Amino acid sequence: MQQDQEVAVEARDLVKEFGPKRAVDGVSLSVPAGSIFGLLGPNGAGKTTTLRMLLGIIDPDSGSRSLLGCDQPLKVACDVGYLPEERGLYPAMNAREAIAFMGALRGLPLAEGRRRAVAMLAERGLADWEQKPIRSLSKGQAQTVQLLGTLVHRPRLIVLDEPFSGLDAINQEKLEALIRAEAAAGATIIFSTHVIAHAERLCERIAIIAAGKVAFSGAVDEARDQLRPVVRLQTRAAEGAWRAALPPGARQVGREWRFELPPGGPEPLLKSLIEGGAGIDTLSIERPGLHDAFVAIAGAGTADAMGREVPQ
Ligand SMILES: Nc1ncnc2c1ncn2[C@@H]1O[C@H](COP(=O)(O)OP(=O)(O)OP(=O)(O)O)[C@@H](O)[C@H]1O
C-alpha cells in the first residue's frame, strides 16, 4: 500500500493568528484514508480555519500539513472536493450548469460534468431541477446542488464545512447516507460540525477542537471509553444493607438510582444488591454516549456551546 493510501490527511502543529487572535493554536491530526472524520467544536473554535489551512486556501503561520501524500495541498486540488461554510452559486446558472461548472474548476471537462450532473440529479429524483436557475431553488435545494458540484469530479478527499446546517431533518438523513456511500466507495471524508450527534452516528474518528486547540483526537470509541458505564437501578426496598453497594457518587432521580459502574464490574454489584435485599425492579448498564464523553473531555461550558440536534 502506498503511503498516501494509509493517511489521507495529516496536520502537524498548525498555528494561525489573525491580528491578536490566535484562531488555531497547535492543531495536529491524522485522518486515515477511506475514513469519515469529524471535526467537532463550538462556533469560533477554529474548525474552518483548520480546514482552510489543510486545503491550502490559507497558509499556516507555522506547522505543516500533508494532503493525499503531498505537502502542497493545491497540487492535489483536482482530487479534493470542498463544500465551504459560506454557500454560494451563481444565481442565474441552472442546476446542471452549476454542478458542471464546479467540476470544471477541479479539472473535469464541462461536457462530462454536464453528463454527470444530469445523472446525479436523476438518481435523486431531482431531474426537474436540471434547467432551473439556482435563484428559483430554496436555500436547502441550492445547498444540495452545491454538494453535488462538490462531488461531481469524484474526489478522493471530500471536505465539508458544517454540511448539515441549513438542512431539514430529512435532508440531513440523506446527507448522512451520501457521506456513508462516498466512504464505502473509497473516499475520505472530513466534516466539521457543532452537533455531536452527527459525528456520533457517522464517524470512526474525531477531533474535538476548543479555543483553537485539539482537546481530543482519536476513535469515537476511545473517547467514549474515557467514561465508565452508567448504571440505572430501581429497587422495591427503599433502605437496607444493599445501599452499601452504591458508590459514593450515586444520585437519585425520582425512583431511579444513577451511578458509574464500580470498577469490579456488574457481578459483585448484582450480588451485593441481591444479598442486601434490594429487590431489583429494573437495572440497566449503559455505555456513555459521545455527548457525555465530550463533556468530560472539553468541559460542560464547551459542550453547552455546541448545537443540539435541531434541524435549522
Ligand atoms: N479572516 C479572519 N480574520 C480575523 N479573525 C478570524 C478570521 N477567520 C477566523 N477568525 C477568528 O478565528 C476564530 C476561529 O474561527 P473559525 O471560523 O475557524 O471557527 P469555527 O470553529 O469554524 O467556527 P464557526 O463554525 O463559527 O465558523 C474566531 O474567533 C474567528 O472570529
From TrEMBL:
<feature type="domain" description="ABC transporter">
    <location>
        <begin position="9"/>
        <end position="236"/>
    </location>
</feature>
<dbReference type="Pfam" id="PF00005">
    <property type="entry name" value="ABC_tran"/>
</dbReference>
<keyword id="KW-0547">Nucleotide-binding</keyword>
<dbReference type="GO" id="GO:0005524">
    <property type="term" value="F:ATP binding"/>
</dbReference>
<keyword id="KW-0067">ATP-binding</keyword>
<dbReference type="InterPro" id="IPR050763">
    <property type="entry name" value="ABC_transporter_ATP-binding"/>
</dbReference>
<dbReference type="InterPro" id="IPR003439">
    <property type="entry name" value="ABC_transporter-like_ATP-bd"/>
</dbReference>
<dbReference type="InterPro" id="IPR027417">
    <property type="entry name" value="P-loop_NTPase"/>
</dbReference>
<dbReference type="InterPro" id="IPR003593">
    <property type="entry name" value="AAA+_ATPase"/>
</dbReference>
<keyword id="KW-0813">Transport</keyword>
<protein>
    <submittedName>
        <fullName>ABC transporter ATP-binding protein</fullName>
    </submittedName>
</protein>
